[in-house]
Amino acid sequence: MRKQFLLIGVLFAMILSAPAAFARDIRVTVNGAEVPLGNAAVLRDGQALLPMDDIFYALDIRVQYHSKEGTATVAKDGGNTVCFKEDSSSVTVNGATKSLSAPAVKQDGVLYIPADGVTAVIGGTAQWDGETVEIEEEGYQFGLDAVHLYRPEERDSTSGVILEEYSIDIPIDPDVFEYTQVVTKDRIPVVSVLEKYYGIDYKITQAYKRRPTATITLSRDGTEYVYKINFLEQ
């Protein structure tokens, strides 16, 4: 009987000593836009931990898992490569070891990381006020960054000549709002944006007659940016 009580006491002490992670209604914003989370963020020892897949999916960054090693590698195009390890607050950033504010934790099959684990990948800053995690990406500026112009292959209705497909990307300066693009006569392209905009509404309006144009409007929290592309037919 004494052995049973002793065993129960040891188990009880282990439960009390294990840090618990609790699901919480924690908002997460990246570059000012709220990120939709498929798995709720959790709270552990007063620290907000974020579901790795959801956060990096919102940033269009791929996560590669290595189940045998209990690690996950995240690489940003043109940026940092970071390797996380379950139950460890140490990560490698481009091969160099760095300590995070809290360890990565796996719970219900989901790997959770602290906010500074996100900024280890994307740079920038992370703030936690007890209700919201605010992450600001290094070098981020609200506004359009590029547009994609596309016109499929088609046959000229008069001559029967096949006109080739064309597909080009035009870089946009977020602070410049009007552009002119030379295009082939009667071949005004379809315009689309390149970046994923979470929490940002955008619409594209195109006019094809008289003065062919495309207008891209971005709006967030009452701020509206309008970009105009004038097509010059030759």
Automatic annotation (TrEMBL):
It holds the Pfam family Cu_amine_oxidN1. It comes from Candidatus Avimonoglobus intestinipullorum. InterPro entries: Cu_amine_oxidase-like_N, Mao_N_sf. Keywords: Signal. The lineage of its organism: Bacteria, Bacillati, Bacillota, Clostridia, Eubacteriales. The keyword Signal applies. Residues 29-135 form the Copper amine oxidase-like N-terminal domain. This is Copper amine oxidase N-terminal domain-containing protein. SUPFAM superfamilies: Copper amine oxidase, domain N (SSF55383). Residues 1-23 form the signal peptide.
